[in-house]
Amino acid sequence: MNNLKTLGLLVCIIIAVIMARPTALSLIIGGIIVFLGEAIRIWATGHLARNQEVTTSGPYAYLRDPLYLGRLFLLIGFCIMAWGYSLLLLPLGLVVFALNYMPRKKRKEMVRLEQQFGEEYKAYASYCRSLLPRLKPYNESRKRPWMVKLFWKENREQYFILIVVSIFIAIIFRY
After folding, report:
1. Is 3 within the bounds of a domain?
2. What is the pLDDT of residues 99-148, one digit of tens each?
3. Is 37 within 8 Å of 161 (Cβ atoms)?
4. Domain count of the chain?
5. CA atoms of 28 and 81, how far apart (whole Å)
6. N or C: more exposed end of the chain, with fewer CB within 10 A?
7. d(CA 86, CA 75)
8. Is 7 part of any domain?
9. Does 104 fall in a domain?
10. At 63, phi and psi to the nearest 5?
């Protein structure tokens, strides 16, 4: 099933690039949004210690799902960059994100994290919203600095960055 979803995502990306009719303005605005999305993801992956703790440092002090927020920014940014008919994919992408991706992730992850970390996670989840950051950090947040080891070895964001840069360049070449 995951291979089918990955294939579907890959087909949508290829179609978006083929249909792309970027303008200078769409490249600038969309590029800024893509940059922000990936910056959020880089910040988050340097703090995320998967299955070891309830991560509450960095962006996790303000929201539960910074990686998903970054992914949402990437979706919006790439559709704006591509412009033209690719913009038609944005409403479809937002619907899939809101009605399929987020609920599925929430069901799987929240249950797993509640089982693994109990009350600690419940307290954190009751304060931090999923995609809308709070202005004030979580009271019990850790003050751990961003760590290359978590970014590079634990979360392997460098591979995701390669995909993001490849899509970015493919859209620019359609200009």
Report:
1. no
2. 988 998 888 999 999 999 999 999 999 999 999 999 999 999 999 999 99
3. no
4. 1
5. 7
6. N
7. 11
8. no
9. yes
10. -155, 155
List pLDDT tens digits, range 26-61: 999 999 999 999 999 999 999 999 999 999 999 999
CA separation (Å) from 11 to 8, 14, 17, 49, 125? Answer: 5, 5, 10, 32, 35
Q: 89: domain range?
A: 25-173
Could you give the angle at the alpha carbon of 74 between the alpha carbons of 25 and 22, nearest 5°? Answer: 30
DSSP conformational letter for 97? I
Q: Structure tokens of 54?
A: 């309830």
DSSP code at position 100: I
Which runs of consecutive H residues, i.e. helices, occur in 20-152?
A: 24-45, 66-82, 89-96, 102-117, 119-127, 148-149
> Could you identify the residue written with the tokens 């083929």?
18
What pLDDT does 161 receive?
96
Question: Cα(47)–Cα(60) distance, rounded to whole angstroms?
Answer: 8
CB within 8 Å of 160: residues ≥ 6 apart: 41
pTM confidence score: 0.93
Q: Is 144 left (phi over 0), alpha (psi -120 to 50) or beta?
A: beta
92 neighbors 163 (Cβ within 8 angstroms) = no
